[in-house]
């Protein structure tokens, strides 16, 4: 690897080779040749003077791209598409005259962009499924473990560790729905010509409008798609790029939320992300275990969320049938977004698959706060024994404020239960209060909600994708 040339960290550090290949020059130029073959076949089937011998010649050289010839030609003509038409023609002399017949550069450029984004979105879909599998196991394992819930990052009514994981999963399921919807409506540009009117093809087909219609349908079918956009300018609508990155932004948002929760839980020492045997948490403080991977998720997610603005602005500023101010921007913003989300989901699965839970710490935190949360139950029991509810409420208020003052101002333990047990109005012993404070009594339906969610919502989704092979994710840095 050259050390004196900039390399995107997304390629060097984060994304997998499958995603990197999809956005590689080789994938692009091989797809160009597939599109030229599809065009030639469709034109032959619709009666243009294209021979099977020419098509066979094109297929024979579909993959052995003569890059050197194309590069040298581009130095002369300054046009990448025509350079590759020339290079392909050098390998296929019989077919040279019919390569790219009637088409514009956007025929290969835009259709390839759509194909690459679609295939990349399929990889993203598969990785979301992988994360859901891991989180499903985690949620099931800890569905009954009570833990403090937080609103405003202040202790609130308890939940369970597994129930909290279902919140992460529900976000991902919403993302998966968006991915599936985007894939369900995938369309190619087809071959629309310079301004989208198919004028060149209408000329080639001698005014036969039906053959122009069939051309797009045949190209789509040969490339594995069900349809082309019914209308376009020279390019497909840049709305598609905006929609694609909007979906990726949604995934990044979900992952960032998960990573923030893990970072906060690691601060509380309740849950930690995996820590490798030889990993260094801090160069200065050897005892530290920093949530580095979760921080990396948040960092990459922030990039994707901001990057999604690029195609939105590009879409909004296109002029009429096309301008070229989209090209340089989308060349950067679209691939980098996919590579970043690929890296994010790798990290997400890795962290989720190795989460370390500390039940004793969780219980300690919960029991410290539980007396405040149990006061309603304690009041109701005392009221049943004949005490006045208003008096009980006032006594609880005073005791709670005093207990909170001890905790906050003196750094002492929460002695609310002792205060209540010592107050005759409640008529209850400390031992009886301890029984009231069983944590499982305060988690509501969290265990049942988790079980229902896993069986009724998640399991059918995972079953639908059972054919996706489960793979362990390796994080390089």
UniProtKB/TrEMBL annotation:
Q: Which GO biological process entries does UniProt record here?
A: 'de novo' AMP biosynthetic process; amino acid biosynthetic process
The Adenylosuccinate lyase C-terminal domain extends over 370-454
Which InterPro entries does the entry mention?
Answer: AdenyloSucc_lyase_C (IPR019468), Fumarate_lyase_CS (IPR020557), Fumarate_lyase_fam (IPR000362), Fumarate_lyase_N (IPR022761), L-Aspartase-like (IPR008948), Pur_lyase (IPR004769)
Give the catalytic activity. Answer: (2S)-2-[5-amino-1-(5-phospho-beta-D-ribosyl)imidazole-4-carboxamido]succinate = 5-amino-1-(5-phospho-beta-D-ribosyl)imidazole-4-carboxamide + fumarate; N(6)-(1,2-dicarboxyethyl)-AMP = fumarate + AMP
Look up the EC number in the record and give it.
4.3.2.2
Could you tell me which SUPFAM superfamilies the record lists for this protein? Answer: L-aspartase-like (SSF48557)
Q: In which pathway does it act?
A: Purine metabolism; AMP biosynthesis via de novo pathway; AMP from IMP: step 2/2; Purine metabolism; IMP biosynthesis via de novo pathway; 5-amino-1-(5-phospho-D-ribosyl)imidazole-4-carboxamide from 5-amino-1-(5-phospho-D-ribosyl)imidazole-4-carboxylate: step 2/2
Gene3D superfamilies tied to this protein: 1.10.275.60, Fumarase/aspartase (C-terminal domain) (1.10.40.30), Fumarase/aspartase (Central domain) (1.20.200.10)
Give the GO molecular function terms: (S)-2-(5-amino-1-(5-phospho-D-ribosyl)imidazole-4-carboxamido) succinate lyase (fumarate-forming) activity; N6-(1,2-dicarboxyethyl)AMP AMP-lyase (fumarate-forming) activity
Q: Where is the signal peptide?
A: none
State the Pfam families in the record.
Answer: ADSL_C, Lyase_1
Family (UniProt): Belongs to the lyase 1 family. Adenylosuccinate lyase subfamily.
Q: What is this protein called?
A: Adenylosuccinate lyase
């Amino acid at each position: 690897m050259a050390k004196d040339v900039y390399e995107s960290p997304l390629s060097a550090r984060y994304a997998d080779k499958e995603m990197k290949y999809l956005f590689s020059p080789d994938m692009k130029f091989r797809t160009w040749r597939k599109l030229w073959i599809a065009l030639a076949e469709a034109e032959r089937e619709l009666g243009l003077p294209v021979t099977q011998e020419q098509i066979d010649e094109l297929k024979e050289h579909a993959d052995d791209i003569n890059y050197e010839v194309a590069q040298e030609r581009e130095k002369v003509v300054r046009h990448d598409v025509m350079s590759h038409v020339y290079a392909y023609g050098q390998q296929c002399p019989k077919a040279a005259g019919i390569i790219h017949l009637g088409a514009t550069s956007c025929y290969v450029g835009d259709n390839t962009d759509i194909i690459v984004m679609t295939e990349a979105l399929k990889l993203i879909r598969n990785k979301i499924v992988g994360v859901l599998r891991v989180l499903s196991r985690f949620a099931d394992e800890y569905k009954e473990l009570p833990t403090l819930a937080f609103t405003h990052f202040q202790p609130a009514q308890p939940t369970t560790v597994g129930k909290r994981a279902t919140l992460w999963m529900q976000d991902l399921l919403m993302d998966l729905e968006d991915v599936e919807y985007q894939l369900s409506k995938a369309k190619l540009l087809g071959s629309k010509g310079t301004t989208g009117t198919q004028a060149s093809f209408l000329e080639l087909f001698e005014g036969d409008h039906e053959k122009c219609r069939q051309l797009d349908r045949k190209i789509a079918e040969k490339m594995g798609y069900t349809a082309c956009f019914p209308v376009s300018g020279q390019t497909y609508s840049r709305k598609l790029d905006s929609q694609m990155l909007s979906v990726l932004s949604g995934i990044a948002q979900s992952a960032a939320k998960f990573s923030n929760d893990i970072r906060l839980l690691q601060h509380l020492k309740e849950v930690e992300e995996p820590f490798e045997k030889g990993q260094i948490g801090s160069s200065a403080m050897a005892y530290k275990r920093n949530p580095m991977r979760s921080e990396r998720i948040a960092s990459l997610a922030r990039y994707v969320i901001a990057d999604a603005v690029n195609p939105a602005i590009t879409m909004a500023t296109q002029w009429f049938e096309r301008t070229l101010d989209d090209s340089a921007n989308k060349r950067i913003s679209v691939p980098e977004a996919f590579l970043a989300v690929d890296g994010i989901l790798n990290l997400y699965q890795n962290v989720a698959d190795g989460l370390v839970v500390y039940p004793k710490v969780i219980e300690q935190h919960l029991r410290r706060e539980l007396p405040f949360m149990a006061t309603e139950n304690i009041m109701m029991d005392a009221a049943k024994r004949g005490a006045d509810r208003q008096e009980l409420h006032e006594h609880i208020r005073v005791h709670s404020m005093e207990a909170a003052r001890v905790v906050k101002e003196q750094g002492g333990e929460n002695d609310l239960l002792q205060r209540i047990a010592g107050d005759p109005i409640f008529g209850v012993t400390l031992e009886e209060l301890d029984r009231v404070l069983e944590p499982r009594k305060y988690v509501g339906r969290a265990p049942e909600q988790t079980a229902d969610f896993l069986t009724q919502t998640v399991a059918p989704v995972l079953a639908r994708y059972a054919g996706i092979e489960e793979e362990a994710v390796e994080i390089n840095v």
